[in-house]
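Pasting two entries for a bug report.
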Amino acid sequence: QVQLVESGGGLVQAGGSLTLSCITSRPTFSQYAMAWFRQAPGQEREFVAALSLGGGTTAYADAVKGRFTISRDNAKKAVYLQMNSLKPEDTAVYYCAANKVRFRSGSSRDTDYDSWGQGTQVTVSS
C-alpha cells in the first residue's frame, strides 16, 4: 500500500467546476492504474473514473461521462479529476485509489485497489 493525498474539494454551485488532485510519493507510480471513487452520505462507495498506466485509456461511470475527465502526470506522481457541469447529486467524499497490481489495466471494481486516500469533500449546492 502507498500513501495518497487528495485535495481540491470544496463547495460549488450547480453548473460549476472543480479539479481534484491526488499525489503520492510512490517511486513506481507510473506502473499502477489509478481511479477515483466517491461516497455520498448513506450510500455505498461508487466508481467514478479510472485511468491506465500511461493515461491513454480511461473509463467513466455513466453518471459522470461527458462531464468529468481523469488524467495523470507521471512525472509529478499525480492524478487529477476535472469536474465540470457539477450537479447536486455529485455531492460526496471523493477518493483516489491505486491498483493493487502493477501493470494491470484500470478497473471499476474497488476490490482491485488497495491504496486509498483520506478523501476530499465535494459539495454542490442547487
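Entry 2 (this is the one that rendered wrong in the viewer):
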Amino acid sequence: QVQLVESGGGLVQAGGSLRLSCAASGRTFSWYAMAWFRQAPGKEREFVAAINSSGGSTNVADSVKGRFTISRDNVKNTAYLEMSSLKPEDTAVYFCAKEAVPFHLGSDSDRDYDRWGQGTQVTVSS
C-alpha cells in the first residue's frame, strides 16, 4: 500500500513563499499522477494542481495559476508544490493524493484519487 506523507507547511506572511513536499512509499510512484488539494475551515476540499506520472504535464487551478507550481521527482518518490505570492485566502490544510488508475493525466476530481496524505497546515497572515 502506498503511503503519502506531506511536509513543509507553516505560517507565512502574505506575499511569501512555501514549498510543500509529499513523500511516497512503494516502488510504483512513477506510475501514477499526483495531485494537491486543499481544504479551508468550513469549506469543501478543492483541487489545487495535478501532475502526470512522468511529470511532463500539469494542471493547475485558476485560483493559483501563475503562483503555484507542481513538480515531482520520480527518483526520490516525492511530489512538490511550490507556492509563491501567497494570500490569506490560500490558508488551508493541503493534502497530496495519488490517482487510482496508473498513467492518467492527473484529474481535478478528488473522486479519482485513492490514497491521501494526512495533510499539512498552511497559514498565510495578512
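Dev reply: Rendering is fixed now. As a check, the viewer should reflect this: The mean pLDDT is 97.
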